[in-house]
Amino acid sequence: MGSQQDQPIVRMVQQHITGRPVSLHVPGHKNGTVFPASLTEWEKILPYDLTEIAGLDDLHEPEEGIAEAEHLAAEVFGAAKTWFLINGSTAGNLAMVMAAFSPGDQVLVQRDAHKSVMNAVKLAGARAVFARPEIDETTQLSIGISREILADAWARYPSLKGVIITSPSYEGWSSDISSLAEFVHGHNGVLLVDEAHGAHFAASPQLPKEALAQGADVVVQSAHKMLPALTMSAYLHASGSRVSRERLSYYLRMLQSSSPSYLLLASLDAARHYVHTIQHKGWCAEQLSVQKQELEAVIGSRLIQPPEHVAADPLKWLVPVPEGYTGWEVQEALEQEDIYSELAGSSYVLWALPLTNGRIDIPLKAVRRVWAGLELRDVKRAPSFSMSELFPRLSEGAWEEEPGGEEWILLESAEGRNAAAPLVPYPPGIPLWLEGEYVDVERIRYARDLLQNGGRLQGGRKEDDRFFVKVKHRKKG
Ligand SMILES: Cc1ncc(COP(=O)(O)O)c(C=O)c1O
Q1: Looking at the predicted structure, is the pLDDT value of residue 445 above 60?
Q2: N or C: which end of the chain has fewer CB within 10 A?
């Protein structure tokens, strides 16, 4: 095993560049010497944008620097094996689910999963049983699935082969994974965790405990979300032998680009080194909590917290907006001050903060201006829908393609029809309905509410003020 001080991919690429290589290979920008003038500022990084040539290893059959870097990452994140991903957690979720399950397998899926998990189940040909997560009554936010629902699911569907959960949630709230892992393994199932938002958890015991350390079999993490890494870079980690590592490699070779970006690979290597450094030197939450209090003083209220038994990521701040306003309105007001939030909900904006020991750049004066500009509104907004109104506690997914045509109709007319395409609020990317699902009035109202408040929906079609969705033709007879 190499040293954690080393960054094998970064080193390998730097060595290559130092030799002032002549590029007679792809990519066409030839180490940045042939490039559109509008992007001259990229000059410094273009030589790093390489491909698999001699001395640079091969992501799909790693033996040198990439293999070393993946070994070092496995050590830091506590995995038996780690793969570097250059197509985001999306590719990780697809490979993880396709490797773990075979066509026809029944699998329990947390209903507020990212669309990539839903797509993965579909591509694997598995049969989903959806489990609604527990909902925090105060905030109506998801707090993950409980052991009780696992027990109910296994009682009703004893042939379940495993469970796919999402933890932490987009808002940074974590499930009690060890208790879920104990149950699932006790029933001979596998536990897969989409930990896209928790790649930084291994850095400090002051952060929620990582899924791997709690017994998950395979875990996907978007390095780019909460670690200092480039967009689309991610990790896939495996532990134990319940899911075949050969199958994981097989699907990754199938699903990932055959021309992986060395910018992304180097950034995954450097992000691992960053986590190792913090593990070693320690991370101090003190600075962050001082800044949190400063913000609370400016906005005149406490940040939103989960119930006591739920571990929350201190780097995700749920900032409540004043009474009478929606999170989308405040998000827009903040953008006028050049402050961009991670997402907005009906009553909050979500901020994702960096993992650092230094002071974080939060322009409090601008935030004060925004809050001062929000006039008092004497309207109480009706609380947004809760997930418990939208999704049943346990439900079987529509998994077999039904023949028959499809049509675009007005959102308002879709009640009682079966969806022909998923409709996905984005962010966070959790499908409101999936292909084949029955469209009910609650979900139509939810979609309408979201659109009226400035939320975005993928999978529909907008024409002026009208919004169309794709549904299946009514069955005859
Ligand atoms: C929970 C969750 N899983 C997976 C993904 C997909 O991650 P990526 O963008 O790295 O492909 C996202 C993206 O937002 C997500 O929120």
Answers
A1: yes
A2: C
- Break the chain into its structural domains and give their ranges: 286-373, 401-472
Q: Residue 461's beta-bridge partner residues?
A: 468
Q: Is 316 in the pocket of ligand 1 (CB under 6 A)?
A: no
DSSP 18-82: HT-----SSSTTTTTTS--GGGGGGTTTGGG---S-TTS--TTS--SHHHHHHHHHHHHHT-SEE
Q: Does domain 401-472 have CATH number 3.90.100.10?
A: yes
Among all chains, which residue has been given the structure tokens 């897969």? 192
Q: What is the pLDDT of residue 402?
A: 67
The C-alpha angle 239, 120, 152, rounded to 5 degrees, equals: 75
The residue among 49, 8, 76, 113 whose CA lies nearest residue 431 is 113
Mutate to test the pocket of ligand 1, among 90, 171, 424, 426 (most ligand atoms within 8 A of CB): 90
Q: Which atom of ligand 1 is nearest to the CA of 427?
A: 14
Ligand 1 center from residue 113 Cα (angstroms): 9
Q: Decide whether any atom of ligand 1 lies within 6 Å of the 222 Cβ.
A: yes
Instruction: Establish whether residue 194 lines the binding site of ligand 1, counting it when its CB lies within 6 angstroms of any ligand atom.
Output: yes
143-162 burial, b at 16+ Cβ within 10 Å, e below that, comes to: bbbbeebbeebbeebeebbb
In the three-class reduction of DSSP (H, G, I as helix; E, B as strand; rest coil), residue 335 is classed as: helix
Radius of gyration, CA atoms only, the chain: 23
Residue 381 above 70 pLDDT?
no
pLDDT of residue 377: 79
89 lines ligand 1 (CB under 6 A): yes
Asked if pLDDT for residue 387 goes beyond 80, the answer is no
Percentages helix, strand, coil for the chain (3-state, rounded to 5) are 35, 15, 50
Token pair 């469209």 in the structure block, residue: 439
CA nearest 283: which of 161, 378, 176, 200? 200
For 329, residues 6+ apart whose C-beta sits below 8 A from its C-beta are 321, 453, 454
**Helix (H) or strand (E) segment spanning residue 458:** strand 457-458
Query: Which pairs count as long-range contacts for 361-368, CB under 8 Å and 24+ apart, including other chains?
Result: 362/291, 362/294, 362/295, 363/337, 363/339, 364/294, 364/295, 364/298, 366/334, 366/337, 366/338, 366/339, 367/295, 367/298, 367/299, 367/334, 367/337, 367/339, 368/298
pLDDT of 190 reads 98
Other Cβ atoms within 10 Å of 336 Cβ, number: 11
Residue 170: closest CA among 291, 313, 348? 313
Q: Which CATH class is domain 286-373?
A: alpha beta
